[in-house]
Specification:
The chain has 145 residues and is an alpha+beta fold. The longest helix has 12 residues. The termini are far apart.
Length: 145
Amino acid sequence: MRHKILPSSQKEVRQRADFLCEYCHASEIWQYVAFTIEHVIPISLGGNDRIDNLALCCFACNRSKSNLIEGLDPRTNKIVHLFNPRIHKWHEHFIWSRNRLTIMGLTPIGRATVNTLELNRSRVITIRKADLEIGRHPPENDPLM
C-alpha cells in the first residue's frame, strides 16, 4: 500500500533538509522533478508516517535504498546500519573528496551507505562536475577533504 504524505509534512521535510537529498546531498532546486519523501524506517519494517521518520530523497537514492536499513561496509565486510538522517549527522559520516566529486564514507555507516545507495554512480558524478563548474556544488556547509 502506498502512503500519501500530507502536503504540510512534505513542505516541512523539504525545508528541514534545506532542499537537499539527505543521502547524496543533491540539490532538489536544480532538478527537473521533485524529490520523494521517503520513510527512513520503511513501513514494511515497522516505520510510520510521522515527520521524525521522513527524509527528502532523490529518485536514485530512494530506488537504491528501497526498504533497506542495513548495508555492507566494504572495508570491514560487516553488515551495519545505513545512515539515518534523523539520528545521524551527515558531516560525521561523509566528506567530499579533494576534487569535490565523490562522497567518501568516514565511518562504517558512511561507507555502507555510499556503497549500498551508490552515492557515486557515474551519472551523478557527471551532474556534480557540471554543477561544480558553475558554483552550485558542493552544498555550502558540507565538509571537504
